[in-house]
Amino acid sequence: MSKLRSDISISLDGFVAGPNQSQENPLGGGGELLQEWVVPLAAWREAHGKQGGEVNESARILEESRENVGASIMGRSMFGPPSGGDWGDGDWKGWWGDDPPYHHPVFVLTHHAREPLPMEGGTTFHFVTDGIESALEQAREAAGGKDVMLWGGGQTIQQYLAAGLLDELELHVAPVLLGGGARIFDDLDPNNVQLEQVRAIDAPGVSHLKYRIVK
Amino acid sequence: MSKLRSDISISLDGFVAGPNQSQENPLGGGGELLQEWVVPLAAWREAHGKQGGEVNESARILEESRENVGASIMGRSMFGPPSGGDWGDGDWKGWWGDDPPYHHPVFVLTHHAREPLPMEGGTTFHFVTDGIESALEQAREAAGGKDVMLWGGGQTIQQYLAAGLLDELELHVAPVLLGGGARIFDDLDPNNVQLEQVRAIDAPGVSHLKYRIVK
Q: Taking CB atoms and an 8 Å limit, are A185 and B211 in contact across chains?
């Protein structure tokens, strides 16, 4: 059974991005602190075309999160640009250069239609204008029986949680406070979201907490 | 060196008590879900005068949290009654019966002076009207070199965090959403609270995340 999975870094006070997100600072104030556990990892560096790096307990978590994924979904604000609006001259091709680290079809939620955008390395961005359920349906079809990864941002994860469509959520809890920004558990009816703890993993500078959403 | 330590159960969406706390429901709506990991434990039952119960990874955490504690501090709302105000006829002696599960001096933060209240089993409640720093000073003195435990509620922990007086904080993260209630990380300046992850422990239905506060 193909699952919809998501994992995201979160501060101890519950923010997945800091306050005042902008084109210069897409993660918001202090948001880079959420990534301090992952950026030094060899597995992360390799996926972003860099060499060297650390190997620790988090490497296994990161590798596992990539396994058996056949397609993904992301919100428009994660694909960018943060200025939003329509696609203008169509020059924007994401944050990741010519060879994005996905290597499978990626469905971008947007209010503005756009032709599919094939990139190098097997990634094609598809733009979905008719809502989160349609995006999931198309991603499931494209995944060919594998799982679908939901990348974020926070608001997109919140929407899939609220709609009861998410199957697994892993939180990478960073030992920092951001004091403001984007949450993922706001505006949910707690009676409609039942979670079951799968595991908690201790790693340098981060705790990985994995949950199954009970249907 | 005597430390000020605190540990508290918290929901995945960051609440240490649910909405609408009252005398009938001191933990607020859904707040009892935060305690589901601890109430079945043999160690918890024994401390509350009951027999039997479960032994699992959480038992070790609970025992460790009681070790080397010579005195404690709690907010008035945790001592009760939740109606607050002055002490009336002085009949209120806490929630815990004649033999409270502390067995050492407990300093209660309040705006209303009251004579010390000795109970059975070594617990004496002292009522402190001149603020959190005075309470800590008196508790340290009474602890005789051992650590001081800060029990809560959430607002009290928040105050000690904001004042830079807390040394260790362990969060028992329950796999539930409460949707509202009391937080402990609100209204803090994130630049003034630096945390270091000590460990993360996986246990049935709860994750124990321990942090040191960097001075």
A: no
Angle between helices B154-162 and B132-143 (to 10 degrees): 90
Q: Is the peptide bond before B26 cis (omega within 30 degrees of 0)?
A: no
Nearest residue, CB atoms, B190 vs list A178, A200, A203: A178
Give the DSSP H or E segment for A161: helix A154-162
Which residue in A186, A201, A211 is closest to B200 by CB distance?
A: A201
How far apart are alpha carbons B86 and B115 in whole angstroms? 13
B200:A202 CB<8 A? yes
Looking up tokens 């508790």, which residue turns up?
B139
Q: Is residue A203 within 8 Å of residue B202, measured between CB atoms?
A: no
Q: What are phi and psi of B182, to 5 degrees?
A: -100, 130
Size of interface A-B (CB pairs under 8 A): 85
- The percentage of chain B sitting over the pLDDT mark of 90, rounded to a whole number, equals 84
| pTM assigned to the model | 0.94
Contact B185 A14 (CB under 8 A): yes
pLDDT tens digits for A172-205? Answer: 999 999 999 999 999 899 999 999 999 999 999 9
Task: Flag whether the ipTM exceeds 0.90.
Answer: yes
